[in-house]
């Protein structure tokens, strides 16, 4: 399993955009948000960027000030493409991990950790 840390520092308007330089290919196992001094109202959009394409895996409104872990999953489907709501799977990902923060307060410092099972 690979751990990728994105260090986050918000600008005076409470925004931040951080993209890893480490390209990953595999399955997203989980995320851990350590908000540090990022404001409780911080909104996060977490994605993987591959060229011009971005795959959003989680959006969080008012992320809070406590450390928290998330395990995003996707719905599987049968041979006919019908979604199986009870068979959730890890999300296949390719690209650069990215987090965008809004309303995080001025000068907030925190981190987001990505846990990836490599292909």
Short description:
With 119 residues, the protein is mostly beta strands. Helices cover 0% and strands 63% of the residues. Strands 1, 2, 3, 4, 5, 6, 9 and 10 form an eight-stranded antiparallel beta sheet that branches. A two-stranded antiparallel sheet has the order 7-8.
Describe this structure in words.
This protein is mostly beta strands and 119 residues long. The chain has one domain: Sandwich (Jelly Rolls), CATH 2.60.120.260. The protein is 0% helix and 63% strand. It is built from no helices and ten strands. The strands form two sheets. Strands 1, 2, 3, 4, 5, 6, 9 and 10 form an eight-stranded antiparallel β-sheet that branches. The protein is globular, with a radius of gyration of 15 Å. The termini are close together. The mean pLDDT is 92.
Keywords:
single chain, 119 residues, mainly beta, 8-stranded antiparallel beta sheet, two-stranded antiparallel ribbon, 10 strands
Q: What is the tally of helical segments?
A: 0
CATH architecture designation: Sandwich
**How much of the sequence is in beta strands?**
over 45%
The class by helix and strand makeup works out as mainly beta
Give the CA-CA distance, first to last residue. 10 Å
Number of domains: 1
CATH superfamily: Galactose-binding domain-like
CATH topology: Jelly Rolls
The radius of gyration is: 15 Å
* Largest sheet properties: 8 strands, antiparallel
Q: What is the strand tally? A: 10
State the CATH class.
Answer: Mainly Beta
What level of helicity do the residues show?
A: under 10%
Q: pLDDT below 50 for ≥5 consecutive residues: which ranges?
A: none
Kindly report the average pLDDT value.
92
Q: What order do the helices and strands follow? A: EEEEEEEEEE
Can you tell me the overall shape?
globular
């Amino acid at each position: 399993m690979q751990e990728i840390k994105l260090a986050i520092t918000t600008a005076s308007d409470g925004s931040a955009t951080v993209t890893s330089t480490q390209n990953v290919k595999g399955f997203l196992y989980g995320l851990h948000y350590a908000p540090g001094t990022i404001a409780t109202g911080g909104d996060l959009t977490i994605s993987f960027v591959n060229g011009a394409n971005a795959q959003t895996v989680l959006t969080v409104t008012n992320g809070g000030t406590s450390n928290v872990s998330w395990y995003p999953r996707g719905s599987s489907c049968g041979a006919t493409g019908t979604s199986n709501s009870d068979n959730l799977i890890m999300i296949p990902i390719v690209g650069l991990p990215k987090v965008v923060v809004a309303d995080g307060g001025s000068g907030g410092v925190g981190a987001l950790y990505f846990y990836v099972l490599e292909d």
